[in-house]
Amino acid sequence: MLSKFIYSIHRILGTLLSILFFMWFFTGLVLIYHTFPKVNQKQKVVALELLGENLPPVSSVLKRIPENYEIKSLSVDKYLGQTTFHIETAEKKYDVPADSTLHLPPVDWSRIEAVARVWCKAPIAKIDTLHKLDQWIPFGKLKKEFPIYKFHFNDSEKHQLYVSSKSAKVLQFTTKKQRFWAWMGAIPHWVYFTLIRQDRDLWITSIICLGILGILMTLSGIYVGIDAYYKQYKKQGKLSSPYKKRWYWWHHVTGILFGVFVFTWIFSGTMSVVDTPKWLGKTTKEYPIKEKMNSKIPAFSDYPLDYREVLKAYQGKIVSIQWGRFRDKPLYHIKTKKKKVTIDASEDSVKSLYLTEASVLEAVSAIHNDSISKKIELLHQYDSYYIARSGHLPLPVYKVTVKNKDGSCYYVNPSTGKYRYVDNHYRWGFWLYSGTHSLKIKWLVNHPLVWTIVMWVLLLGGALVSLTGVILGFRYIVRKSRKMRR
Questions:
Q1: 63 or 215: whose pLDDT is higher?
Q2: Alpha-helical regions (H) of 327-447
Q3: Which helix (H) or strand (E) holds 344?
Q4: What are the strands, taking DSSP E only, across 197-345?
Q5: Mean of the pLDDT values across residues 100-105?
Q6: Is the sign of the CA dihedral 297, 300, 302, 303 positive or negative?
Q7: Alpha carbon 234 to chain centroid distance?
Q8: pTM for the whole thing?
Q9: Do residues 258 and 454 touch, judged by C-beta distance below 8 A?
């Protein structure tokens, strides 16, 4: 009775979901090469202008915001001819013009149009005023930017630019090619349809519900596949598919070969929108990581190295400076048109940052008791939990392993002071989602060609299982329809 019920569950859910699964595997192939378009840091840097050297001391800038506010971040850049300091406190964000005699220009139509012309030099074909989200800005959090101006440019790439009427910030920038591949990949794969995606709770609920049904379908399918082989073995004494009809045979064989991978993908895809349960790799103690990593730092206005000396040293190449810190070292994160550099601001000479093993160990020891054993090594290749197929995580990096119950581990970039913390709870979350869904496995990522071949084989296998399921589901519906008519 139970076996018959499982067979029925698989047949019904397979009929309903196979076409959806086929779409997911096909779009997964597209996502290897094309993702959903978004404004990236490189585009933002291109839009910035070079900073001049005649800028005020930081102390005079900070006096222009309310006192007794703890400053969380500070940066300066130049955009549309205006040099501006961006100051963030716990209460509010402030944009302060470098010239104290000036005020920031109002966000009016002339400024919005100027932003559009900086981002794309082509003639403007038309401008839409949006009071509703559309396919390329489907996120509910953007509703506060209404009305949003959508610029269509008359160039070969058919650029489209979205600019906020509230802040004049660029919200989206796409080309015709990006939009095409998004429809072929990211939009259907991630269920990024505006009607659903603009409501985050609805979007998450939709993915979870589809995921649960998909998990039931794949688990019942794995059971059916094994059970059919087992019955055939008991009957004939050999392992072979009992199905003689072509599409049944293909569905059975490919399901046995790729069923486990189909299950792991649908399960991990569902986990992409679900928090890792707290009981998995449960954290035994909360560590003061941020507080200790940023302790012993002087006020932004008291850095031993004046930021204007950095501007002089780079002779008109810098587009932005961000004040930073690592433990007791004040830092400047600078961007030029071509690269990023972190400057050690703890002395009055301009030099690039490079943290020593001793300084990194000192920082970690401030978080964890000195008596706890620690191991440090310099990685020149990606590690199991410091890994990126796109290569955006920089190397080399220090890895500090702490021998405690939480499996604490730190990855610290010696050239920037930026760090990543990993513990047992993080590791569980990694394997429940990205490790299995994107095959972020160290050996595969370090061998990109092998990763690509493996991903193609598995995705094509999953697509074949789903396609045969679509055909069988269609025939099942036809049989039922004929029976009902009779």
A1: 215
A2: 357-367, 424-432, 434-437, 442-445
A3: strand 340-344
A4: 318-326, 329-336, 340-344
A5: 83
A6: positive
A7: 50
A8: 0.89
A9: no
